[in-house]
Structure prediction request, 118 residues.
Amino acid sequence: MELSDLKIMLGLSDENKESDSLLQLIIKNTELSLRFKLGLNAGEDIPSELSYIPLEVAIRRFNRVRNEGMTSYSQEGESITFSNNDFDAFESDIEEYKRRNNSDGLLYMIDPYRRYDV
Prediction:
């Protein structure tokens, strides 16, 4: 994920460098979290089919900055509820990708010499 893409989605100008360090940290942690959920090794890239997830999760994470630990927030009639896990909305996509790519960590073996009539 590119920093510039995240800044565009958040409506931040490229000239605004104040938040770059925070955004870079959010990008790094979001990509690490997705890599862990997918069971990827250090050298493996996030699959292109799921490349939209880090950007969407990073936006959610940025919007929660300074509201960590809260599940809801209310002020003057405005109410905001936060998800417990930023990846919740994408869990079915992650599971479907893993199912299709057999990335569950299991090795399936077939014994070609097994006799089924015994």
Residues 3-100 form one domain. The longest strand covers residues 72-75. Strands lie at 72-75, 78-81.
